[in-house]
Amino acid sequence: MLEIKNLTVGYIAEPVLRDLSVTFDDGDVVAVLGPNGCGKTTLLKAIVGLIPVRDGKVELDGADVTGGRTEKLAREGLVVSPEGRRLFGGLTVMENLRAGRFTGRAGPSIDDVLDIFPRLKERLDFKASAMSGGEQQMLAVARALVGGPRVLMLDEPSLGLAPKMVHQLFEVFRTLANDGRTIIIAEQNVIEATRVARTCHILTGGTFRFTGPSLTADDQATVQRTYSDLLALN
């Protein structure tokens, strides 16, 4: 279980996140929703030690991991697939996947993730920079998966993708929690996010302004309506 307790994070002056608390349960699929600049990326970076925390704690199974080294946290199972994919563009698909095994954790094999993303199986010798945006996003998620994450955080996975590709990719996210893995999707595509998430948090003004389930069509409509209402107020 991943717990965020009274987290305050900022870069220079005003904090981006203020006294933020949330619990991510094992096996859950969670959407953190909000517009550009609301703090979604800041939250994920704070969890994996990429930016300093001013106050509060990040706990994994009750152990304080606040401000830990990113590589160490990855080896403990906190893995992020960052916005913009951040692939090794000069390396092939296979070489990028092998790089994802640096954590040394038990997890899906390269063959396993190629079964999840059969398109990549056809591109093993392609350099990452030569692939389409959708293929690159698949590779970014696959590379994170072979690291054996307990908590997989996906930062704006729909960014720049065609609607059909977004739909296919999010279908994969729905299945990734089946073995107890926690999936956190930081997104502004509220339609797709609510379709696959079980719980949604709407982040504006540095804090969660709404938290609710996304299990039924009525739940999803409530989240989507609340999201639109909150954006109109900001």
Structure description:
Belongs to the ABC transporter superfamily. 35% of the residues lie in helices and 24% in strands. With 234 residues, the chain is of the alpha/beta class. It has a single domain, classed as 3-Layer(aba) Sandwich (Rossmann fold), CATH 3.40.50.300. It has a six-stranded mixed β-sheet with strand order 6-7-8-3-9-10, sandwiched between helices. A hairpin with a 2-residue loop joins strand 4 (55-60) and strand 5 (63-64). Helix 3 packs parallel to helix 6 and helix 8 (190-196) packs antiparallel against helix 9.
Task: Please specify the SSE layout and strand pairing.
Blueprint: E1 2-9, E2 17-24, E3 29-33, H1 40-47, E4 55-60, E5 63-64, H2 70-75, E6 78-81, H3 93-99, H4 110-116, H5 118-121, H6 133-145, E7 151-155, H7 163-175, E8 182-187, H8 190-196, E9 199-204, E10 207-213, H9 217-233
Parallel strand pairs: 3-8, 3-9, 6-7, 7-8
Antiparallel strand pairs: 1-2, 1-4, 4-5, 9-10
Helix pairs in contact: 3-6, 8-9
Family: Belongs to the ABC transporter superfamily.
Organism: Paractinoplanes bogorensis
Pfam families: ABC_tran
